[in-house]
Amino acid sequence: MTSLATTLRSAAHGSARTLRAATASLALALAALNASTVTAGDVAPHHDSGSYMLIVSPDVEVIGISAADVGRLLLGQRRYWRSGQQVVLLLPASGSPARRYLLDRVFRMTEADYRRHTLGQLYRGELDYAPKAVLSDGEALQYVTSGHGALAVIPASVGLPTDTHVLRIDGRLPGDPGYLLSH
Questions:
Q1: Whole-angstrom Cα distance, residue 156 to residue 147?
Q2: CA–CA separation, 1 vs 9, rounded Å?
């Protein structure tokens, strides 16, 4: 997927063979986005506590971010942590309460708008791959605890392993008055 944008740009100036390769790469990107689409019935239950939190891998040294950075990180506009480490974004699956919350309250987009946004970033070379959709809170926790640079959105009611931490948003944690990811 890392060469998708390069392949597509080359196709604009290249041969029919390059165009076929670009079309195949775009088809793979679309398939990856569609693979992350599941119906609500397919999703393992997510807790809907009314409040969500951002959790990060143990190796992420950041303890807090601004409200503006929340959107930039989750929309793939900020791709690296301050240390230079790549952000590995894990988003809730389509149809889950957490995904609907992000779309409605943080992104202010429909699912179709979000897909267009992500495909545009892939096409322009702004993303190397589409964010991974996790099907459950447990899967998100597993990726975060075993990954490097991972960032996930989970309900604030979920208990965390000791080696992960919650990002403060504008100095606030879930449960604090004015916390960004609360209903």
A1: 20
A2: 14
Give the whole-angstrom CA distance, residue 152 versus residue 141. Answer: 8
Instruction: Characterize 64-101 residue by residue with b for buried, 16 or more Cβ atoms within 10 angstroms of its Cβ, and e for exposed.
Output: ebeeebbbebbbbebbebeeeeebbbbbbbbbbbbbeb
Rounded (5°) CA angle 145-149-153: 65
What is the pLDDT confidence band of residue 49, given thresholds at 50, 70 and 90? low
User: What pLDDT, on the 0 to 100 scale, is given for residue 183?
Assistant: 75
* Tokens representing residue 96 in the block: 């889950």
Distance of CA 28 to the CA centre of its chain: 18
The Cα-based distances of 47 to 22, 44, 52, 127 in angstroms read 40, 10, 10, 30
CA dihedral (32, 33, 36, 40) in degrees, to 10, reads: -150
